[in-house]
Amino acid sequence: MKRATQENVLVNWKYRQLVIVAGLLMLMLGLSVNLSAKAEQGSDSKSEWFKVADNTYVFRYKFYFTLFVKTENGIVAFDPLSNEAAEQYVKAIREAVPGAKLSKIIYTHWHTDHSTGAKILRREFGRNIPIIAHENTLARLKKLTDSDVPLPTKTVTNDGLVLNDSSNPIELKYLGYAHTNTMLIAYLPKQNLVFGVDFVNHDSMGWRDLPGVDIDELILMQKRLMKLDFKTITFGHGRPGGRQVVSRQINYYKTLLKEATSAVKKGLSEDEAVKSTVLEKYKNWENYDNWFTMNVRGAYRFVKEKLE
Ligand SMILES: [Zn+2]
Questions:
Q1: Sheet strand arrangement including 232-235
Q2: Cα of 21 to ligand 1 centre, how many Å?
Q3: What is the Å distance from ligand 1's center to 28 Cα?
Q4: 112 C-alpha vs ligand 1 centroid, how far in Å?
Q5: How many whole angstroms from 179 Cα to the centroid of ligand 1?
Q6: Fewer CB within 10 Å: N-end or C-end of the chain?
Q7: Can you name the residues that pair with 132 across neighbouring β-strands?
Q8: How far is the CA of 39 from the centre of ligand 1 (A)?
Q9: How many CA atoms lie within 13 A of 28 on its CB side?
């Protein structure tokens, strides 16, 4: 994620030395080397944690973000992301809350690029730490049988679940099936904060050609999210933001859908729809160059299938 790496160019001395040696070697070979570009890939910028609200922290690993919350019973840690990320996640939790014990792990949804890594958290904090997820996540992960993704030990239905804690209640809510039928969001009423993964992102295109995404449902989910009384949203991808970030996502998908609908109604082919859909407004969004035309293709196919 370009923006994230530019903000994190802190480089430790050891790494700088390595870069200098590597740079000299490259120069000796007659090649130019961009030191600042190298530095951005430094181990220090790979992961970080920061406080986002009272007792509430964001952990980032590469372009993945997750959340952990201090409660009276211990830390509640969301998505461990991967075994590699979880090693850093452990350090982040211990730095942010010295002496912390971990009370629960929560998977937002089954996708293994967010749910992997609980094994590492359990190794460090306790083998029997409960893992909470939607019941459909359990069903999906049972089929996967991946020892790196331990199965949830407690499940939540579409009715959601409230983790009662006098200082930090956490409400797990099911808002819809646009990004798998396994997705839970977290609502922290005391912090006026929500945590949403993958179905909503910070000024970013949808993933590739929106495979399997029901765009109508996606917009509905984002609207259901807006009904919650929050001021801050943290994401699975992208930095925290305010309510306007969600409004912008809703507007983007509505516009995409409108353009695709008019292209299909005019009888344009998919390639013609790609040519005629120019949304300049979004050209600064994350992944615009890589995925915008793919988003248009995904929306075109979605509308075509719906209208046929
Ligand atoms: Zn996902």
A1: 161-163, 170-173, 185-188, 193-196, 232-235
A2: 40
A3: 45
A4: 8
A5: 6
A6: C
A7: 106, 154
A8: 29
A9: 6
The CATH code for residues 43-197 is 3.60.15.30
| Ligand 1: centre distance to CA 34 (Å) | 34
> Which residues on neighbouring strands pair with residue 195, listed in sequence order?
186, 234
Cα 138 to ligand 1 centre (Å) = 15
Residue 111 Cα to ligand 1 midpoint, Å, equals 5
Ligand 1 center–CA 109 separation, angstroms? 7
Domain ranges of the chain: 1-41, 43-197, 199-232+241-308
Ligand 1 mean position to 108 CA, how many Å?
A: 9
Task: State the distance from the centre of ligand 1 to the C-alpha of 140, rounded, in angstroms.
Answer: 13
Rounded to the nearest whole angstrom, what is the distance from the C-alpha of residue 244 to the centroid of ligand 1?
A: 22
Say how many Å lie between the CA of residue 163 and the centre of ligand 1: 23
Angle between helices 215-226 and 288-307 (to 10 degrees): 110
**How many angstroms separate the alpha carbon of residue 255 from the centre of ligand 1?**
23
C-alpha–C-alpha distance, residues 296 and 255, integer Å? 10
How far apart CA 115 and CA 78 sit, in angstroms, is 9
Alpha helices in the chain (DSSP H): 2-7, 13-28, 35-39, 43-46, 83-96, 112-115, 118-125, 135-144, 215-226, 243-265, 270-276, 288-307
Reading the chain (308 residues) residue by residue, the pLDDT tens digits are 333 333 343 334 444 444 444 444 444 333 333 333 333 333 458 999 999 999 999 999 999 999 999 999 999 999 999 999 999 999 999 999 999 999 999 999 999 999 999 999 999 999 999 999 999 999 999 999 998 999 999 999 999 999 988 889 999 999 999 999 999 999 999 999 999 999 999 999 999 999 999 999 999 999 999 999 999 999 999 999 999 999 999 999 999 999 999 999 999 999 999 999 999 999 999 999 999 999 999 999 999 999 98
